[in-house]
Write a structure and sequence with these properties.
This protein has 208 residues and is an alpha/beta fold. It has helices at 9-19, 25-43, 80-90, 137-148, 163-172, 200-205; strands at residues 3-5, 49-55, 60-66, 71-77, 95-103, 110-116, 125-129, 132-133, 153-161, 177-183, 186-187, 193-194. It is built from 6 helices and 12 strands. Helix 1 (9-19) packs antiparallel against helix 2 (25-43) and helix 2 (25-43) packs across helix 3 (80-90). The radius of gyration is 17 Å and the shape is globular. The chain binds 1-O-pyrophosphono-5-O-phosphono-alpha-D-ribofuranose and uracil (URA). Uracil is lined by residues 132, 134, 191-193, 196, 199-201.
Length: 208
Amino acid sequence: MAVTVVDHPLVQHKLSILRDKETSVREFRALCQELTMLMAFEAMRDLELEDATVETPVALAHVKRLAGKKLALIGILRAGLVMVDGILALMPTARVGHIGLYRDPDTLRPVQYYSKLPSDVGERDVFLLDPMLATGGSAAAAIEVLKEKGATRIRLLCIIAAPEGIKTVTDAHPDIDIIVAARDERLNDHGYIVPGLGDAGDRLYGTR
Ligand code: PRP
Ligand code: URA
């Protein structure tokens, strides 16, 4: 298990705009996609390559191509959808799955209402996507669902994580790699990340 904070200047700059409460719904959505693409570079750093050759207009070139397992992008509904779109822009042939979870506002425990995964998810490199890792209950439950379906290599990408959420996931699933753009200070009494960015789903879809 490893936790990686992607501290690239471009990521940190975009994150600063994302956090701003004055950022519009449209810009918020675009930034989430862009941040996910940038984070994907780090998250996919250890994908296997194989040797190949291609003919350029000039000569034969010895090149590297992605080898190994195919990818599955799993978005936690709702907010994870925008991250799926970000990676699909880079890797359009990846298969996509969805896990529907919401946090009960009183208990903060995740409630599952939907799951549709690629049938061969167990044979794929899985990227689990959700912008917010707060208590960690939603991510831990989603990982449980994926493992029940046979997934073995799972990476969790979240834009902002609270220390509490990282601990919950690493305690329950020590085999998971976590990639974040920021590790924030703490959760508040309502389970929101401080300073965070507010409710990601509402800011993405203008539902507040
Ligand atoms: C948000 C977020 C995560 C979850 C994180 O979703 O997108 O899925 O909260 O919280 P946790 O780590 O404490 O479980 P939310 O429950 O608001 O659902 P929504 O995306 O449908 O609005
Ligand atoms: N879910 C969000 O969207 N934001 C938080 O800060 C915590 C959970």
